[in-house]
Design goal:
The protein is mainly β. It is built from no helices and eleven strands. Strands 2, 4, 5, 6, 9, 10 and 11 form a seven-stranded mixed β-sheet that branches. A hairpin with a 4-residue loop joins strand 7 and strand 8. The chain is globular and about 45 Å long.
């Protein structure tokens, strides 16, 4: 069974930085990517960034140039470095393990989600 545990959220002023971590265990064979999603109150959960085992990355337009996803394969940890944070980045951030198709650059989230970590950016 896959387990994902996020950490690193918190309260930060606009323009500040945070780094989220997601420790994964029990990864199964049909998963080849890790992703970060976020959900703000009243909004749908949206894909923020993903990293595939093949080295591909993908970002939401709203975070390009500010957020960086990376992974430590030896430790099964995926990170989300968030710089130049804005109040609109405020949300609960979730880690997901799923399937990335490189030829279409589409991501199918798996059934495995972390518990979420709150990020609050004050203006």
């Amino acid at each position: 069974q896959v387990q994902l545990v996020e950490s690193g959220g918190g309260l930060v002023q606009a323009g500040g930085s945070l780094r989220l971590s997601c420790a994964a265990s029990g990864i199964i064979s049909n998963i080849n990517a890790m992703a970060w999603y976020r959900q703000a109150p009243g909004n749908q959960r949206e894909l923020v960034a993903l990293s595939s085992s093949g080295g591909s990355t993908k970002y939401a337009d709203s975070v390009k140039g500010r957020f960086t996803i990376s992974r430590d394969n030896a430790k099964n940890i995926v990170y989300l470095q968030m710089n130049s944070l804005k109040p609109e980045d405020t949300a609960v951030y979730y880690c997901n393990a799923g399937l990335f198709r490189s030829y279409t650059r589409t991501y199918t989230p798996g059934d495995y989600w972390g518990q979420g970590t709150q990020v609050t950016v004050s203006s």
